Amino acid sequence: MGKIIREKHHRLEEEFYRGCKIVSFTVCVKNRATFFVAEDRFRRCELLLLEALKEFESEAEVYVFMPEHAHLLLRGKNETSDVLKAVKSFKQRTGFWLYQNHLSVRWQKDFYDHILRKEEEVAKHIRYILNNPVRANLVEGWKEYPFKGSTIHNLNEWN
User: Fold this and answer.
1) Structural domain count of the chain
2) How many Cα atoms occupy the beta-carbon half-sphere of 104 within 13 Å?
3) Alpha-carbon span 133 to 140, nearest angstrom
4) Domain assignment present for 59
5) Which CATH number belongs to the domain containing residue 28 in this structure?
6) Which residues, listed in sequence order, are joined to residue 114 by a DSSP beta bridge?
7) Are 82 and 74 in contact (CB under 8 A)?
């Protein structure tokens, strides 16, 4: 009988994502399939993200849905917040919606994350995420890109 090879655990323990933490997540569509190119798709997933954030007492510094992935910079609002559970809930909610409405589209099994260590890194990360559509040559300026938002900042006033 062959030896079972388990996937290497590459995420920090769950307690590192609780409390007033700021974490950058990248969630990819399976096989990098193009999906977030229509307003209705974005709006539905945005609504499900906002529901998950509320449930786990978290906020979004910024989120940008690129055609084949999403960038989420999330912040816990208090000591009982859990941004990791918020992202997992978001993936589950949107996964169910995808199953019901877009059978050929799925999220990639896992996601990437990075816990920010210093408050001053936040503005740098927001700018990096907002400029993703510019680097991908989808728009000339990030303010033109429609599939973005924040629960904290008014992005129309963001520099």
Assistant:
1) 1
2) 5
3) 8
4) yes
5) 3.30.70.1290
6) 24
7) no
Start-end of H helices in the chain:
39-55, 83-101, 121-130, 132-135
* Segment-wise mean pLDDT, segments of 10 residues, the chain, 159 residues: 54 81 94 94 97 98 98 96 96 95 91 84 94 97 97 89
pLDDT value of position 4: 61
State the Cα–Cα distance between residues 152 and 59, nearest whole angstrom.
7
User: Helix, strand, coil: what percent of the chain each, to 5?
Assistant: 40, 20, 40
Identify whether 3 is part of a domain.
no
Q: What is the pLDDT of residue 117?
A: 83
- Asked whether residue 2 is assigned to any structural domain, the reply reads no
Q: What sign for the dihedral angle of Cα 86, 146, 103, 29?
A: negative
* Total Cβ atoms within 10 A of residue 142: 19
With respect to residue 158, please indicate whether it lies within any of the assigned structural domains: no
Chain centroid to CA 45: how far?
A: 10
pTM score, whole prediction: 0.90
Expressed as residue numbers, the domain containing 108 is 14-151
- DSSP helix/strand/coil, 28: strand
